[in-house]
Amino acid sequence: MMSVSLSAHSWTKVHAMPSEPYLQERELRRRAREEIESGRLPKSLTASIWGGRGSGLPCAVCGDHIQSDRVEYEIDDPRGGEPFRFHPTCHTVWQLEGALHPSGSHDTACHC
């Protein structure tokens, strides 16, 4: 049997990078639908996605600036515009809304 001693070592506490926006899911979904319907966000997914520390630029869905202590996803605009930046949750909400409402319209009775 192996024994491990932790007594003489100095340990650094590692903190996970927060990745969540501050809005509730219902509001995020509403904003994502609005961005898709207005044409500001594409409906379709892209082939590539990059992730890393936040750049300080605004999220394409919630509009909050993605601080450097947060995770940021970046995708190219398939229409050739500037890249889009997202919090991971906002990116997932955008994907979901694009898949649920591919025609750009949604059921106005939806209370998601």
Task: Describe what you observe in this structure.
This protein has 112 residues and is α+β, with helices and mostly antiparallel strands. The chain has a domain at 25-42 and 50-100. Helices cover 24% and strands 11% of the residues. Strands 1-2-3 form a three-stranded antiparallel sheet. Helix 1 (25-38) packs across helix 2 (88-100).
Q: How many E-type strands? A: 3
Order of helices and strands: HEEEH
The neighbouring-strand order within the major sheet is: 1-2-3
Average pLDDT works out at 77
Percentage of residues assigned to helices? 10-25%
The class by helix and strand makeup works out as alpha+beta
Number of helices, where a helix is a run of at least 4 consecutive DSSP H or I residues: 2
Alpha carbon gyration radius: 19 Å
The poorly predicted ranges are 1-19, 104-112
Distance between the termini: 54 Å
Largest sheet properties: 3 strands, antiparallel
What form results from the Cα inertia axes?
A: globular
Beta-strand percentage? 5-15%
Question: Helices, strands, pairings?
Answer:
Layout: H1 25-38, E1 50-53, E2 71-75, E3 84-86, H2 88-100
Antiparallel strand pairs: 1-2, 2-3
